[in-house]
Design goal:
102 residues, globular
Length: 102
């Protein structure tokens, strides 16, 4: 079951809005979307087997709908990492399940 991440306060619940805007801008630029195109950046909790406790889902709501998932909080998704995923997987369905913990 997935839902918003609440790590104990409003600041933990809401990812940094500037970073979210930056990620959305990268999606729009790389995917060549106009500024009104619906792009979603959402941090979710996941309790499914083999799912990290927190993941970030980035989606172009389409048509066609495309998604990319990263097994980490939104603030930890680097611009370069997102750009690389968008270039490597332009049709979406990128699910980076590698363990990114140091």
């Amino acid at each position: 079951m997935r839902g918003p991440v609440n790590l104990g306060g409003a600041a933990a619940f809401t990812p940094n809005s500037e970073h979210v805007s930056r990620l959305k801008g990268i999606v729009r630029t790389v995917a060549q979307l106009d500024s009104a195109a619906p792009v979603l950046v959402q941090q979710l909790a996941c309790t499914e087997p083999d799912c990290p406790p927190v993941e970030t889902v980035i989606a172009i709501l389409g048509p066609p709908r495309r998604t990319w998932k990263f097994p980490k909080p939104t603030i930890d998704v680097a611009v370069a990492e997102l750009r690389a995923a968008l270039v490597a997987y332009p049709d979406g369905d990128h699910h980076d399940h590698r363990d990114h913990r140091d």
